[in-house]
Specification:
Aminopeptidase; disordered N terminus; Alpha-Beta Plaits; 16 strands; 2 domains; 9 helices; eight-stranded mixed β-sheet; four-stranded antiparallel β-sheet; alpha/beta
């Protein structure tokens, strides 16, 4: 199999600083086919959130074979592995879990597990982090790794509550000065990465509203609480009021995904339900949201005569990339791929539990282009036909390896 870990056309690796030029490129070229095979195995054998036991065991076997000493997390479905020595640690995180979706692709590595597939690219994230570990292990054996790097293979990113808090509680951030991660992004072609400082992804919380009333005849709405009308008020008025009660610079988006009340056209129901999400780009606004959203819902419902029960469920904080960490990874990506292969990433209103790590240490997440250049086919995230241009694996390893050395050399963390 031809290696995918080749240098993008036009990149002069001999002009790149540090121990990576030349030798690392040759190392990655040798291991490229192995990494593609590894990714395809993960894709064919996905495991859902909190059940990533075989995936974690496979990662341990591969890292151990490279002479490293990985450790399983207490639950056995995640892995930590330090490479090198030093009091200050630069960490890299990948997520292991797949989504509860069928795999509808016609490929040899199609999922063999019913209704479970890697539709968010976590198989790629895991493979890139493994490739980084193999590359850094070589540098450590050659005595040219100037510090300590920690690989974090995390379970349950796709679940709420997610796996990041458990991993942090297990000591993943001990001695960590900065942390980095990447995420597949099919809207960029393979060979490009997206970087930005500041807000990167949104906080993602869930709201469940249950309205109750005595019910009654639609001919006499004045004798009861009109729950359908009340639900309509909640669905329309609360997001509009929230926009006026929060700083518009906070990037707040409240959207309802499910609304249900009643069955008969001529009967006012006694119960009604609305469920939705609240997404916010600002940490302070996110902390204020539960109390404010709950109060707005109750105030709107109070005028209708119905009773409201509100459950506000925390999801994940926003990912706020540290300015210096973003600058380090941008420079490293430029050294790895060429400056013209680094673009400004867009803000996403999706949620990512990498944010929990950034509540403790500075760091940055970047977007790894996974689209096929020139192709009209879109394999968007969380779709059952999701796939990647596998050349992205090599590009991801190169960027992360350069980031590791740049971060270790930086005096900013």
């Amino acid at each position: 199999m031809t290696s995918v870990l080749t240098v993008p056309e036009g990149t002069n690796v001999d002009e790149q600083p540090g121990p990576l030029p030349g030798r690392l490129d040759r190392l990655l070229a040798v291991r490229g086919a192995d990494l593609v095979t590894f990714r395809r195995h993960l894709h064919a054998h996905p495991e859902p959130s909190f059940h990533e036991f075989e995936t974690a065991a496979l990662v341990v076997r591969e890292l151990t074979a490279a002479g490293l000493k990985p450790e399983l997390l207490p639950n056995g479905n995640g892995v930590l592995c330090d490479i090198g020595t030093g009091d200050r640690v630069i960490a890299f995180r990948a997520d292991l879990d797949a989504l509860p979706l069928p795999d509808t692709k016609d490929v040899p590595y199609r999922s063999t597990v019913d209704n479970v597939t890697h539709a968010c690219g976590h198989d790629v994230h895991t493979t890139v982090l493994l490739g980084l570990g193999l590359a850094l292990a070589e540098l450590e054996r050659d005595g040219v790794l100037p510090g300590r790097v920690r690989l974090i293979f995390q379970p349950a990113e796709e679940h709420i509550p997610s796996g990041a808090p458990e991993v942090i509680a297990a000591g993943a951030l001990k001695d960590v000065a900065a942390i980095f991660a990447l995420h597949c992004y099919p809207q960029l072609p393979a060979g490009l990465v997206g970087v930005r400082s500041g807000p990167f992804t949104a906080a993602a919380d869930m709201v469940h509203v249950t309205l109750t009333g005595p019910g009654g005849h639609t001919a006499r709405p004045h004798l009861t609480a009109d729950l359908v009308h009340a639900l309509g008020r909640v669905v329309v008025d609360v997001p509009a009021l929230l926009d006026r009660r929060m700083d518009p610079r906070a990037g707040v988006s409240m959207v309802w995904g499910a609304v249900h009340a009643g069955e008969a056209a001529n009967a006012i129901p006694g119960t009604g339900v609305a469920r939705g999400t609240v997404r916010i780009l600002n940490r302070e606004a996110w902390r204020e949201a539960p109390e404010l959203v709950t109060q707005l819902i109750k105030d709107v419902v109070a005028a209708t005569g119905a009773e409201a029960e509100v459950t506000y469920r925390r999801g994940v904080p926003p990912v706020i990339n540290d300015r210096m960490a973003a600058a380090v990874v941008a420079g490293a990506a430029g050294a790895a791929l060429g400056a013209d292969h680094v673009v400004e990433a867009e803000i996403s209103m999706g949620g990512e539990d990498f944010s929990f790590y950034l509540e403790h240490v500075p760091g940055a997440m970047i977007r790894l282009g996974t689209g096929t250049p020139g192709s009209d086919v879109q394999y968007d995230l969380h779709r059952s036909n999701f796939d990647v241009d596998e050349r992205c694996i090599g590009y991801g390893v190169r960027v992360m390896a350069h980031t590791a050395l740049a971060a270790l050399a930086s005096g900013s963390f």
